[in-house]
Amino acid sequence: MPQMQHSSKLRDVRYELRGPILQAAKKMEAQGHRILRMNLGDPAPFGLEAPESIVVDMIHHLRGSQGYSDSKGIFSARTAISQYYQTKGLMQIGVEDIFIGNGVSELISMTLQAFLENDDEVLIPAPDYPLWTAAVTLTGGRAVHYLCDEANQWWPDMADVEAKITDRTKGIVIINPNNPTGAVYPRHILQRFADLARKHDLVLFSDEIYEKIRYEDAVHVHTASVATDVCTLTFSGLSKAYRMPGYRSGWVALSGPRAAMSEYREALELLASLRLCPNVPAQHAIQTSLGGYQTIDDLVAPGGRLRQQRDRAHELLTAIPGVSAVPAAGAMYLFARLDPQLYPIENDEQFVIDLLQEQKILISHGTAFNWPTTDHFRFVILPAVADIEEAVRRISAFLGAYRRS
Ligand code: PLP
After folding, report:
1. Of the residues 105, 233, 279, which should be mutated to test ligand 1's pocket, given the most ligand atoms within 8 Å of the CB?
2. Structure pTM?
3. Does any ligand 1 atom lie closer than 6 A to the CB of residue 239?
4. Maximal CA-CA distance, the chain
5. Whose CA is nearest to atom 12 of ligand 1?
6. What is the DSSP letter of 330?
7. What would the CATH number be for the domain defined by 8-49+298-402?
8. Nearest to 375 by CA among 399, 394, 397, 405
9. What is the pLDDT of residue 11?
10. Of 50-59, 110-119, 146-155, 335-344, which gets the smallest average pLDDT?
11. Is the ipTM of this complex over 0.95?
12. CA distances in angstroms from 322 to 153, 319, 404, listed in the order given
């Protein structure tokens, strides 16, 4: 019987966060091992549940959510999103500019599919949230990575960004606050991106899903607010700050020169209608989520749970010889560095698998985030402090044996 073959479009598509390492962990769990899973940015397993008022609201709307909705999403949710951006100064974002999706993930694929021709290039940060690279590759485009600078708070190296622009470049992806580095970008960096977009006629894809998760005095600036004359797509959703990734609800807001974007908007409307509509019950959670005071502020304030976990994780990890990490200004991760002089890692995926097998802890290797060298790993700061302490103890024990003597 001939092999059923997969499409060649998948040849270069990688998403290692849910790849062989996760399979190895599942196998060990099936054998009865308890794995400390610190590989995904999912708050729910760590007792960080969605605000009760939002869940109650969704339950209330469940019976009335049985039918399909408008392809772009229900009017009340899209209104709430546009009003939210207007209160943040983005006056130009109207209801018609909002598309709701089954999480930001679906919208990343949809917006790129509507945009790219084969071999078009999109600039993506390194390290990145790897879905961006995978989605560009799947559409036939080419992901070109610009470097973020660990020595400068993981902010993008703007000279590298500019150097990587070619006549095939169509857009730039900005992830702010950033997964996996925790960087929050200052206004002047975003202005530089806007200047480059203006100069080279590029579209800005600004993934702001961690907008509300910030520590200390980190300020979030919407890319769209400094790029009012640039075609900009702003992505956000309920998965992180509102802690409901399983409900699958996100959105994208279009802003910039309206006339220049009309053909693209129609293409997006077509793609939105091909998937009929986003999950309807979760759309009812949007208005309540955006509408009032939500408990994320308590989690990130001094003494708040996320803040304590961030601080403790940083303190303990960086106490291990040869381990350093830029403190996260936002999001839920540390992207830690292992000094290559002490830890000569050739294959960081294998390193993480060995750690899993020996210490029953699952973390993510740096190259899974398209980081070019094998000297980083991502540490999720969602577990309670006691679990973070246990996790670091295990990593430290493993590194002790691994260390070059
Ligand atoms: N963008 C970034 C930067 C993320 O880290 C994630 C999830 O981890 C997503 C998008 C996907 O979010 P969603 O659950 O809305 O699909």
Report:
1. 105
2. 0.96
3. yes
4. 65
5. 104
6. B
7. 3.90.1150.10
8. 399
9. 84
10. 50-59
11. yes
12. 19, 8, 11
Residue 250 Cβ inside 6 Å of ligand 1? The answer reads yes
Place of tokens 């949230």: 129
402 CA to middle of ligand 1, Å? Answer: 33
pLDDT value at 295 more than 80: no
Identify residue 239 by its one-letter amino acid code: S
CB 209 near ligand 1, within 6 Å:
yes
**SS3 (DSSP) at 174:** strand
DSSP H or E segment with residue 133:
helix 131-138
Q: What tens digit of pLDDT does each residue of 314-329 get? A: 999 999 999 999 999 9
Q: Is the CB of 104 under 6 A from ligand 1?
A: yes
Round the CA-based radius of gyration of the chain to a whole number and report it. 21
Residue whose CA is at the smallest distance from ligand 1 atom 10: 104
CA 105 to centroid of ligand 1, rounded, Å: 6
Token couple for 97: 């500019």
304-307 CB contacts, 8 Å cutoff, 24+ apart: 305/48, 305/384, 306/48, 306/213, 306/215, 306/332, 306/381, 306/382, 307/215
For the chain, give every domain's residue range: 8-49+298-402, 52-291
> Across residues 109-130, what is the average pLDDT?
97
User: What sign for the dihedral angle of Cα 381, 368, 50, 27?
Assistant: negative
What spacing in Å lies between the alpha carbon of 104 and ligand 1's midpoint? 6
Given the CA of residue 104, which atom of ligand 1 is nearest to it? 15
Distance 398 CA to ligand 1 centre (A): 30
CB 271 within 8 A of CB 114: yes
The top-level CATH class assigned to 52-291 is: alpha beta
- Nearest atom in ligand 1 to the alpha carbon of residue 175 is 3
